[in-house]
């Protein structure tokens, strides 16, 4: 189940697929961010690294997709890598890019 604070930080800011009312389905990125980072830490990371959803995401983050409710039925990004990924994937991708500069 989604929590409003994480939904605001991850889904509403970064996910092109976000739809209010779909609170029971979690993307893999949401799962990992919620499990390993507090909402306060996540907010700080987004602000400090100036994360946005405009750059091309890194490939090869299959560990994110492995936990995703959408992977089996409805994720264009996982299937053909041509669509925009979910908000959680974007955040993790941007963070890894910044750490690997």
Tally of individual domains: 1
DSSP strand count: 0
Taken as a percent bin, the fraction of beta residues is: under 5%
Termini Cα gap: 34 Å
- Spans where pLDDT lies below 50 across 5 or more residues: none
Number of DSSP helical runs: 6
Element order: H for helix, E for strand:
HHHHHH
Q: What is the CA-atom radius of gyration, in angstroms?
A: 12 Å
How many strands, what sense, and barrel or not for the largest sheet?
none
Mean of residue pLDDT values: 84
Structural class: mainly alpha
Task: Please estimate the helix content.
Answer: 40-55%
Q: Which descriptor suits the 3D outline?
A: globular
Characterise this structure.
By secondary structure, the protein is an all-alpha fold. It has one domain (4-99). It contains six helices and no strands. It has helices spanning 4-14, 28-36, 39-48, 62-65, 76-80, 87-99. Helix 2 crosses helix 6 (87-99). It is globular and about 35 Å long. The mean pLDDT is 84.
């Amino acid at each position: 189940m989604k929590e409003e604070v994480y939904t605001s930080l991850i889904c509403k800011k970064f996910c092109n697929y976000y739809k209010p009312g779909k609170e029971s389905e979690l993307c893999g990125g949401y799962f990992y961010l919620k499990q390993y980072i507090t909402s306060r830490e996540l907010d700080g990371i987004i602000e400090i690294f100036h994360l946005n959803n405009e750059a091309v995401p890194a490939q090869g983050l299959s560990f994110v997709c492995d936990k995703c409710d959408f992977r089996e039925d409805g994720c264009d990004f996982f299937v053909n890598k041509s669509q925009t990924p979910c908000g959680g994937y974007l955040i993790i991708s941007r963070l890894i890019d910044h750490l690997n500069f």
